[in-house]
Task: inverse folding
């Protein structure tokens, strides 16, 4: 049995590039809001990134809970 490819199992936060209208197939082809959304990292979204239709948004990950 093989392990799943981690790139196929992850999600990425993207937003439309300036002047672009991007549809979201996972949401009945609704238009993506300007602030973007989290989508699966699959062939469709990898192509949108490569074509410049969307930009990846780096989100900050929490380093841990602050001590009380």
Result:
């Amino acid at each position: 049995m093989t392990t799943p490819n981690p790139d196929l199992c992850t999600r990425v936060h993207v937003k439309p590039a300036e002047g672009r209208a991007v549809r979201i197939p996972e949401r009945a082809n609704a238009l993506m809001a300007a602030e973007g959304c989290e989508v699966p990292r699959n062939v469709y979204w990898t192509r949108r990134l490569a074509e410049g239709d969307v930009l990846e948004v780096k989100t900050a990950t929490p380093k841990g809970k602050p001590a009380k």
User: Anything to note?
Assistant: The longest helix spans residues 43-51.
